[in-house]
Amino acid sequence: MAHPTDPDHAIRGAMGGHDGVPRAGPRTRRQEAPGLDPTKVSQVPRWRETEGVYTELERDVMAYAEAMTATPPTVTDDMVAALVARLGSAATVELTEMVAVENLRSRSFSAAGVRSQGYSDVCELPLASS
């Protein structure tokens, strides 16, 4: 298992999967990946207002993901430079790819009329209100 200060570990943690592999279906407490922090997961909807929960790197990753998915995108050269400096080029490219894939999937599903399957309705981990 990667050390929590390892950049790859930080990216996977910020993306929601301990090993970077998307999961199908709801995750219950019994299925949580080792190292998954329920507090961090529950606070994602209000990550900007939550203090002391996320590392600076996790905040930078979430800000980058939001900026990538905005219409139009609002990613700045400074955002990319900061991520490259902390994660390296390869990890920044991988992060960019994963955010782009999830954004493509979300927008494609929305355009095709695919609706929620209700997984969050049965999740044992409540999300904070935004």
Structure description:
With 130 residues, the protein is mostly helical. It has a domain at 46-112 and 125-130. 48% of the residues lie in helices and 0% in strands. It contains five helices and no strands. It has helices at 7-15, 38-42, 56-69, 77-87, 89-111. The chain is globular. The protein starts with 6 loop residues before the first helix and ends in a 19-residue tail after the last helix. Residues 1-5 and 14-30 have low confidence and may be disordered.
In terms of topology, how is this protein built?
Layout: H1 7-15, H2 38-42, H3 56-69, H4 77-87, H5 89-111
Helix pairs in contact: 1-3, 1-5, 3-4, 3-5, 4-5
Which structural class do the helices and strands define? mainly alpha
Written as H for each helix and E for each strand, in order along the chain, the element string is HHHHH
β-strand percent reads under 5%
Share of helix, binned: 40-55%
- What spatial form do the alpha-carbon principal axes imply? globular
Low-confidence stretches: 1-5, 14-30
The chain-level mean pLDDT equals: 80
Count of DSSP-assigned helices: 5
Q: How many strands?
A: 0
Main pleated-sheet profile: none
Termini separation: 32 Å
What structural keywords apply?
130 residues; mainly alpha; 48% helix; globular
